[in-house]
Write a structure and sequence with these properties.
Length: 127
């Protein structure tokens, strides 16, 4: 899951450092780094240095990675649609199933934060 989340995030936001990715995904930096190295070995991302004075390492999608990232983003769009339907229908099982993806779906603007207000009326808090 974290693999597809990283790909979708880089697709949506462009070049990012491992720390930025970890912050958005609410994951440990070391876990993100392990996944980025795996994506690098697969030829889906590349690491490069950015900045003249304050240099930092960032990751970007390769052309092959771009194709994989499109698929990952489509999968997240489908999850977002299912999550919105679950919120509207009060489907607690589906809400629980997608709880871990919620922050990413909001960060990628796939779920409108206003829709999440309906959760308060469902008396369902897992965040």
């Amino acid at each position: 899951m974290i693999r597809d989340s990283i790909l979708a995030l880089l697709y949506d936001r462009g070049e990012m450092s491992k720390e930025e990715i970890a912050q958005v995904l609410r994951q440990d930096v070391d876990e993100v780094e392990v996944n980025l190295k795996g994506l690098e070995r697969e030829g889906l991302v590349t690491e490069k240095e950015k900045g003249i004075i304050f240099k930092k390492k960032v990751y970007a999608l390769t052309p092959t990675g771009l194709e994989e990232a499109k698929k990952a983003k489509q999968g997240l769009e489908e999850k977002a649609n299912m999550l919105v339907q679950a919120i509207q229908n009060g489907d607690y099982d589906t809400l629980q199933e997608y709880a871990d993806d919620l922050y990413l779906l909001v960060a990628l603007s796939l779920v409108d934060a206003m829709v999440l207000q309906e959760l308060a009326f469902l008396d369902f808090f897992w965040i």
